[in-house]
Amino acid sequence: MKLSVVLATYNEENNIKDCLESVRGWCDEIVVVDGGSNDQTVEIVKNYGAKVEVTNNPQIFHVNKQKAIDLATGDWILQLDADERVTKELRQEISSCLNKKSVNGYWLPRKNYFLGRWLTKGGQYPDYTLRLYRRGKGHLPQKDVHEQAEVTGKTAYLTHPLLHYSDITLHRYFLRQGRYTDLMARQLLKTARTVKLLDLISYNLFKPWYWFFSAYFRHKGFVDSWQGFLFAFLSALRFPLAYYKFLKLKHADRTG
């Protein structure tokens, strides 16, 4: 059974090499759809023998991920992000699963790196994500920033984690948060025709406090030292930030 590793990239020259090194010589094919990077991303992936398609960079980046999935020719597809790494143990586990005819997809536990620490609590581990599926059996809805793949048929769970170096610095965290809240604001614009007091209160009070309480106390984020507190606090801020951006978009629509 042949395995294709697929990625969507945009200005990932600082991440993509380590990602591809983690699958080099193991997978049968690497497919990359690049959103028009203006750094060395495309040149780097070509050096790894990847099949590359350069296109635009849609706000919902799952669009390019699905394009990469559609271009893959392997029997199985492993969808990765440029800041993720496949360990030796995970490679061995995946290889042992590819000939199981009864399963069409696998959930991978993911470890998230935040400012010098692997998060172990706060709902961040095991951060299961559906990334490995039989070709033709899995696809992305391409509607939401945190969506999971949809797989036809039976799925199962792997035990060795996928390493996610998502937030090595605060600068990178805020860049990612900015993209996510931009998308959240545009999704709100599509669904909310008017500015409602209930939404205003919910996004600026209820949602952020509920998220912080859930991540830091209910899911024991305090175990992860100051990184656990900061992660819970900053991730809770996405709700008022997204609503503020929604109000700006709403005002821009009104003023034409």
**Separation, N- and C-terminal Cα atoms:** 55 Å
CATH architecture of the largest domain: Alpha-Beta Complex
Using the coordinates above, name the CATH class of the largest domain: Alpha Beta
Could you say how many structural domains there are in total? 2
Helix count, per DSSP? Answer: 8
Summarize the structure.
With 256 residues, the protein is an alpha/beta fold. It folds into 2 domains: 3-167, Spore Coat Polysaccharide Biosynthesis Protein SpsA, Chain A, CATH 3.90.550; 170-255, no CATH class. It is built from 8 helices and 13 strands.
Main attributes of the structure:
42% helix, globular, Spore Coat Polysaccharide Biosynthesis Protein SpsA, Chain A, alpha/beta, 8 helices, 13 strands, 7-stranded mixed sheet, 2 domains, 4-stranded mixed sheet, 256 residues
Structural overview:
The protein has two domains: 3-167, Spore Coat Polysaccharide Biosynthesis Protein SpsA, Chain A; 170-255, no CATH class. It contains eight helices and 13 strands. It has helices at residues 16-21, 41-47, 62-71, 88-97, 170-191, 197-218, 225-236, 238-255, and strands at residues 3-9, 29-34, 51-54, 76-79, 84-85, 105-108, 110-114, 117-118, 129-134, 138-139, 150-151, 155-157, 162-167. Strand 7 (110-114) and strand 8 (117-118) form a beta hairpin.
